[in-house]
């Protein structure tokens, strides 16, 4: 139970009774079984003494509902300006409230609530729905999913930014969302076994990845057959200056045709595409 003291601290204000702490511990065990070690590839990890252990000797720290699976080598990888900005505390602090609601609609011309309605509508939640939110940031969608999914479901947010994940953990604590887990990892190394999720979401982030093909391959692998993949990203502008400036900032505006080819190459079948100004919303199935 040692690793669960953070559970009480963060979720806390003593809102987790003993029964809930035990349930959280069991849920951690179930989540560990779904994991795959990104170092040796072993599948199904074990929890003991508050950490997740792999047979290769790797110890994965757990702080409440926050699991750190980012390995040392990944931490050293050079970040683009766009990725580094996602660790800048002033931006992290205003991301959910101000940034996401004000700047995104400027580029998309649709309110965030409409985007959210469309994305949530693509996932037909059932009580045991398992959803993975890639590049979840401060839990913009993760918490909405956790609210929509019942107590038997599971929502996992993955992000490379510890600062964003801390923010997501605080929101989960405030709202007592006990089915929501957060994992620090790189999107190209999603640390889950194959066929684990009914749905995967990736919003507002594809354009920040240096290479999208490895990410899409992993998304295809972790989805169950017929699983749903939703994404929202930004397309290239007709102005080459805008595209060049974006590139300088580490924002790789997407070419719609190339994205559709990449989805297809990864084994995903496109079911719906909607666009509004620079925004592209896609629903695909495995
Ligand atoms: C603009 S935020 C999007 C957050 C949220 N999904 C949303 O819809 O608002 C982009 C997120 O992508 C994350 N990110 C960027 N590159 C990543 C990578 N290679 N692996 C995991 N997360 C990454 C950043 O840390 C950041 O939290
Ligand atoms: Zn291992």
Give an overview in words.
The chain has 286 residues and is of the alpha/beta class. The chain has two domains: 6-64, no CATH class; 73-285, 3-Layer(aba) Sandwich (Rossmann fold), CATH 3.40.50.150. Helix content is 40%, strand content 22%. It has helices at 5-10, 18-34, 72-76, 81-85, 89-108, 112-122, 142-148, 162-174, 213-222, 240-248, 256-265; strands at residues 46-48, 51-53, 59-63, 66-68, 130-134, 154-159, 180-184, 197-203, 223-234, 269-276, 279-285. Strands 1-2-3-4-7-6-5-8-9-11-10 form an eleven-stranded mixed β-sheet, with helices on both faces. β3 (59-63) and β4 (66-68) form a beta hairpin. The radius of gyration is 18 Å and the shape is globular. Residues 1-14 have low confidence and may be disordered. The structure holds S-adenosylmethionine and zinc ion (ZN).
Mean pLDDT: 87
Low-confidence stretches: 1-14
Strand neighbour order, sheet with most strands: 1-2-3-4-7-6-5-8-9-11-10
Small molecules bound: S-adenosylmethionine, zinc ion
Q: Counting H and I runs of at least 4 residues, what is the number of helices?
A: 11
Strand tally is: 11
Second rung of CATH, namely the architecture of the largest domain: 3-Layer(aba) Sandwich
- Tell me the number of structural domains: 2
Protein structure class = alpha/beta
- CATH class value of the largest domain: Alpha Beta
- Give the end-to-end Cα distance, rounded to a whole number of Å: 38 Å
Strand content: 15-25%
What is the alpha-carbon Rg in Å? 18 Å
């Amino acid at each position: 139970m040692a690793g669960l003291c953070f559970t009480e601290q963060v979720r806390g204000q003593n809102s987790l009774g003993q029964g809930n702490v035990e349930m959280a511990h069991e849920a951690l065990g179930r989540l560990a079984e779904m994991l795959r070690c990104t170092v040796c590839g072993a599948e199904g990890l074990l929890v003991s003494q508050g950490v997740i252990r792999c047979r290769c000797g790797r110890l994965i720290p757990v702080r409440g509902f926050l699991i750190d699976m980012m390995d040392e080598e990944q931490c050293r990888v050079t970040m683009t300006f766009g990725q580094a900005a996602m660790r800048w505390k002033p931006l992290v602090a205003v991301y959910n409230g101000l940034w996401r609601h004000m700047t995104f609609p400027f580029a998309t011309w649709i309110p965030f609530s409409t985007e959210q309605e469309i994305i949530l509508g693509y996932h037909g939640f059932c009580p045991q729905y398992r959803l993975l939110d890639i590049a979840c940031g401060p839990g913009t969608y993760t918490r909405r999913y956790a609210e929509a999914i019942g107590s038997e479901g599971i929502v996992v947010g993955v992000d490379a930014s510890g600062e964003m994940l801390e923010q997501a953990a605080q929101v989960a604590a405030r709202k007592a969302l006990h089915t929501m887990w957060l994992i620090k990892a790189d999107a190209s190394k999603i640390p889950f076994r194959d066929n684990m999720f009914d749905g995967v979401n990736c919003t507002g982030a594809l354009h920040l990845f240096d290479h999208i093909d490895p990410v899409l391959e992993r998304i295809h692998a972790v989805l169950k057959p017929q699983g749903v993949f939703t994404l929202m990203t930004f397309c290239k502008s007709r102005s080459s200056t805008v595209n060049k400036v974006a590139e300088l900032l580490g924002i790789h505006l997407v070419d719609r045709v190339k994205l559709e080819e990449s989805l297809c190459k990864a084994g995903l079948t496109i079911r719906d595409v909607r666009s509004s100004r620079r925004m592209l919303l896609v629903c695909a199935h495995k």
